[in-house]
């Protein structure tokens, strides 16, 4: 009986080994078949891709892309440096005019208007230089476009001098119209030096043989001080 058992056990081992070998061979076979089929499918796919035109993707419009319309937006206006300066000057002038009106009593305003009216007929009777280039001995001082005594950056004739001290390429002076008519072109000489200027402004303290020269700053006005000058009328204003 033991001999039969040994035979049966040895046969079982052989059968089990055969079964394992068959499993291994079947796996190897399936792997080989799968690799060959995969290789063939890859080759077929490559061949199909070669047949398709390369330019087609570039000319074909994809369905998922949508046309986007952009609305034109107007950018806000940026102020230039000149516009900013003009706005600041207008604001400054407005504040100064309001301060002068508040600080000056109404009675003084009425007196000044009466004086102006009373001075008008006297202008006709006062003497004026009738000959051109006739030198007049005068006292000269200097002033700035803006001040606390009523200077608002505009001359008596309405010319804006807030950014300049020149008019038609010449200097600007304030005069007494009874001595030098407004809009006159004059020549001012002193200490072997001279310049030409237009008489387009007046002043409360500018009376008789006195002129006031427009300068850029208060420091220049202080340096100019008071000077004795000779004034000759080149072109008489009206």
Short description:
By secondary structure, this protein is of the alpha+beta class.
Helical coverage, percent range: 40-55%
CATH class of the largest domain: Mainly Beta
Structural class: alpha+beta
CATH superfamily of the largest domain: RlpA-like domain
Architecture per CATH nomenclature, i.e. the level-2 architecture of the largest domain: Beta Barrel
Uncertain stretches of 5 or more adjacent residues: 118-131
Supply database-style keywords:
rod-shaped; 6-stranded mixed beta barrel; 2 domains; Barwin-like endoglucanases; 5 helices; 238 residues; alpha+beta
What would you say this structure looks like, in words?
It is a single chain. The protein is of the alpha+beta class and 238 residues long. Helix content is 44%, strand content 19%. It contains five helices and seven strands; from the N terminus they run H-H-H-H-E-E-E-E-E-E-H-E. The protein has a six-stranded mixed beta barrel with strand order 1-6-3-5-4-7. Strand 2 and strand 3 form a beta hairpin. The N and C termini lie far apart (159 Å). Residues 118-131 have low confidence and may be disordered.
């Amino acid at each position: 009986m033991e001999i039969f058992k040994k035979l049966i056990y040895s046969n079982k081992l052989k059968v089990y080994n055969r079964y394992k070998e068959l499993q291994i061979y079947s796996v190897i076979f399936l792997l080989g078949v799968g690799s060959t089929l995969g290789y063939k499918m890859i080759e077929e796919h490559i061949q199909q891709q070669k047949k398709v035109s390369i330019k087609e993707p570039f000319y074909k419009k994809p369905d998922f892309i949508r046309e986007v319309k952009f609305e034109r937006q107007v950018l806000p206006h940026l102020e230039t440096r000149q516009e900013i300066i003009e706005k600041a000057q207008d604001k400054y002038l407005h504040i100064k005019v309001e301060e002068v009106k508040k600080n000056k009593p109404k009675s003084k305003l009425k007196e000044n208007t009466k004086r102006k009216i009373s001075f008008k007929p006297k202008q006709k009777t006062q003497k004026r230089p009738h000959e051109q280039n006739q030198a007049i001995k005068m006292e000269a001082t200097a002033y700035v476009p803006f001040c606390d005594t009523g200077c608002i950056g505009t001359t008596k004739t309405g010319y804006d001098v807030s950014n300049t001290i020149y008019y038609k390429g010449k200097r600007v002076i304030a005069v007494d119209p009874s001595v030098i008519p407004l809009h006159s072109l004059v020549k001012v000489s002193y200490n072997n030096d001279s310049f030409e200027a237009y008489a387009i402004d007046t002043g409360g303290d500018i009376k008789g043989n006195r002129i006031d020269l427009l300068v850029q700053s208060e420091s220049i006005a202080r340096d100019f001080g008071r000077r004795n000058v000779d004034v000759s009328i080149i072109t008489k204003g009206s």
